[in-house]
Description:
Largest sheet: 6 strands, antiparallel
Mean pLDDT: 84
Shape: elongated
Structural class: alpha+beta
Low-confidence stretches: 174-178, 233-238, 671-680, 819-829
Helix content: 40-55%
Distance between the termini: 94 Å
Radius of gyration: 34 Å
Amino acid sequence: MLIENPTQWVGKVIEEYELKSILGNGKIGYVFLAEHKVLAEAKRACKIIRSDQLKTGWELEIQKVKALSSVPQIVDIQSWGEILDEKGDSFTYINYQYIDGENLTQYLSREKNLSITFLQALGEALIYAKHACDAMDLKHGDLHEGNILISKPDPRLPDNPIRIYVTDFGCGGSRNQLDPKPDSQQVSSIMCRLLKSVRIDQLEATERSIREKLIIFFGKEFTDSYRMNVSNNIESTNLNLWSLYKKRISEAQVDAANAGRGRSEINVDDYLNAEALGYRQDEWQNLFVPEILGASAFTSRNVTVITGARGCGKTMAFRRMTLFLDELIGESSGVQGADGVLGFYLNCRDIVEAFPYIPSKLHDGQRRQLIHYFHLCWLHEIFRAFGQRNIRESLSYEWVYNWLEKKFGNEFERPLLTGVEPLTFLSNFLGNQKEKCRLSQSKKLDHWNLDQIDLLDELYAVASENIHWIQGKPFFFFLDDYTIPLLNVALQGTLNPIIFKRRANLFFKISTEASNSFLRMNGKKALEVTHDFDLIDLANETLHIEYEERADLLNSIFRRRIKRIEEFRELSLGLDEILGISDWSFNEQARRLRSSKGSSSKAIYYGSKAFISMWSSDVRSMVQLFNELVRSLKVKDVSLLPISPIDQQSRYSDSGGEFLNLTETIKDTGFWDEDVNRGTTSKNFGTKLKDIVQAFIAICRWELIEQPLIQNQDRENPKQAFRIEIIDALELTEKTQLYYNGLLRWHVFLPDWRGRSVRGVMTPRIFLNQRLIPFARISFSKKDSISLSNKEFQQLLNEPKKFERYWKEKRRNLTKVKVPPESGQADLGFDKME
């Protein structure tokens, strides 16, 4: 209970000190500025509390804190006693050393750009205070920003420094207060949040290194659990925090110096996975490219399923377009249209790791438990992002407390201590609830608090009413790795009603491995593309964008990474400068291949055009390939550029061969029914896929090199095809569907969903992954096709080696009788061939 009419105390005299004004208040008391009656320069901070609010034994706590009175970083307690108010009620006063300044909360509201120097000073003060407490076996228990004081600069000292203090060790606190919080956890939370809020682009090399070391130190090494483990390992009772801190600062200075001398090697292929970036602001700024492939699908106000080759950048785009990273980095992602939405990210592995043994059939309690956990994950992410935003604009979150009280009832208890950062408290509460849910057996609970299908809609409505900066912006939920069998059919069937629910202000963006790797059912209703969701295949997008756009996208990615090479850092180099400008057209390339009979002795695949044409959305593999070229050839001297054509061709061909060999390791994709025994189909699955690819490559090469020239672009050119076109309706058997799914899911072939119309039926076109073209020794041109009937296509999938022989014989016969293959006379005796 706070003091009624606190102004009644202004003007009162306590121990020769007159209370002049109110400095602030806590949960149960007020703090006053007190000046000596004679020596006005002598000041105190006097805290007054109702005596009936004091906890038992509070005097002993003050005596313990007095043991810290000589520690410069801790505010001293000078005296204490009892006084009566005008009504005769008993109050207790505690006189503290007066610090002329402000608390950290006030400082942060004023200072938007924190310096590493300040954060070092803050960190050192907290380390000193923690060390002193450990030495005296004391705990603060409530170390939030309001209890950290920052003095004004002291003009009496040469450097005019500020000083940082820790105050209010809970002395005299309410007897109803919450359990004390671990000091190390609170310091770690404060320091890591502030360090991660610093703008990396404004730091010098040494400051960047210090920041990284401090994040590691306060995020891990400062914690009680880490210190306990290390102490047990070294058979020591304590880990000297100060020595470890100084060691990390020294390491940072050495790292920065070495980087300046070029000793710290940074590679083009650093951070190939978005997960590896963590929350490194500098690397997100250096490596993220806002001109992402298929950007409109990421920002459209529709539920969208996004597929693409592994490493195509789905995860990086999802994570970077979140509110959390916008606030952490200090600027929006730059993706066109992203400014109009508020994004949040969740990887499905978080669910799978919490419930690793989800049965194939779920009872009602299990479904509700999973929905409850799914919502907890999103709430945790939403409030984490709100907390990052709150660093620069502090708002009241009383509305969240009210909302959660309605949801959780007595399970939710508001924080009783003053100064507890609300979103930190909420994060801890939700984290504890996730752990409770994970460990609970659904059969033992008759309800789950967050199992409503429309819970996120409800949260959006109440948040919009209370947070002015939402301003009608929709919430985008970026759900990554929504893929069978990572999430089984039963789990996807449970979550689909939430994900594919039609809403005005909430939209899910789902990434999955392929168009056939997620459950297209919502209850008993089949989900329809364009009606229930949009589908975009990023690999398919690369088939249709113009070459200039493709080149611009890749150059925007690679220019950033080329600058990571020390020798190239100050130069403006792109793919043209590193690889050379290609001096051939696709037709000319095809004619060279034909004249050389496919020989690899003459360089045909080289220059930026070949590299760019190989891209089939898989950015990661292209970055790896480029880095291998640069590193293995040790191209560090600009005068040696561009890399020689024959070296480029050799590496491109090897890369395609490696990719094809990996196809052999692919497992059976028949994940829809795990109980089906597929016998030899499953055992030899990858080998069959490789055989199919090799047969198709052989056909494409034979058409290009051995078959007559065809009319193309006003002259006769070799036939250039790496695309299959089905000339009638595609109807596959169970077995051939399995092979077809495998080829598409692992992006060995890329589907062109725009397809073609055959007698009113849309049939797909299927492209060979362009990364395989230099290995296959065929042309990059997409103008021609290998036209197959549905029956022939199934024979290619079933018996690829036999089909290769059949195809060549068929084409020879067609050439003799001059029947065009597009006429539909395709079956010339396949069943009769041996």
